[in-house]
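To whoever is on call:

I kicked off a structure prediction for a single chain this morning and the downstream step that reads the tokens threw a length-mismatch warning. I double-checked the sequence; it's 349 residues and nothing unusual in it as far as I can see. Pasting both halves so you can look.
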Amino acid sequence: MPTEYSAAVPGRYWHRLSDGRLQCDLCPRTCKLHVGQHGTCFVRANDGTQMVLTAYGRSSGFCIDPIEKKPLLHFLPGTSALSFGTVGCNLTCLFCQNWDISKTRLFDRLLKSASPQTIARAARQLNCTSVAFTYNDPVIFLEYAVDIARECHALGVRTVAVTAGYITPAASREFFAHMDAANVDLKAFTEHFYHRLATAHLAPVLKTLKYLKHETNVWFELTTLLIPGENDSPEEICAMTRWIVRELGPEIPLHFTAFHPDWKMSYKTSTPLETLHRARTIAHSNGMYYVYTGNLRDRNGKATFCHSCGKILIERDEYKIISCDLKKRRYCKTCGAACAGVFNNSTIS
């Protein structure tokens, strides 16, 4: 076995082709690998006998974050998450905002070694309510994430996936069975965008979202990074939000976030706040209850409003909760309407 695979662990979701190559069945890319080749994600490889995960037990970094930074505003607000990731990604987004981690092909970025038990214990000792798999997409290190999740749950620590949802149905069943919450990056609502800017497809992401809604108990929220001239037209936003209400329900929180020039789209202009406001207005007009803005300072766009009477339920300044007007951590004190989310054991009062 090549030395680069000496620390690798066997991967799941693959099969051998008639020509001897191994096909990865973890995500819709279905990479077909000769001996020694890595998939698009870079961390799954053919070691000559099987598919292996080469990033198991190693991280590109750790950080304690407010859960609101994921962003998750309806999942245990006011609590902290121990965030970490590995390297690589199964999408090739030209606009990637974490390109130094997700696009790297250097394993020397994996400087920190941590077993699943170590991560779970660290979260508990640091008073983090959850561990967040973030920085790069956790579906590509499914085996590692699942093992961490098991250790976390044994200690009463929740798990959060920040993901693009680009995963096959078989793998998604195992992956999300071990997640308590997710923020899914719905990058756009056209096949053209996914194909041209991420070399991916829209349909598998929509299938993942419908699976999360109708077949799991995972709390999830959506994020769409609005890129000027690419996915920010009123028509596309209208179509997307109508689909969300129809297929997922009006209570699913949606975050419109501002693009800043980066990676291979540094020539683009930043997203103005007015674009986020327009998108938020369209989403509300189509019946969505909870719509937020991000990556730009906008206190009103960070607040949670009662979908029934319009009163502010949770007021925030960036990631900090300023006030909360929820009764029993769930109901509007003015009209009694329930606010969708997971608020039990939250630190909000």
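Update from on-call: the warning came from a stale cache, not from the record. Cleared it. Sanity check on the structure: Residues 105-110 have pLDDT under 50 and may be disordered.
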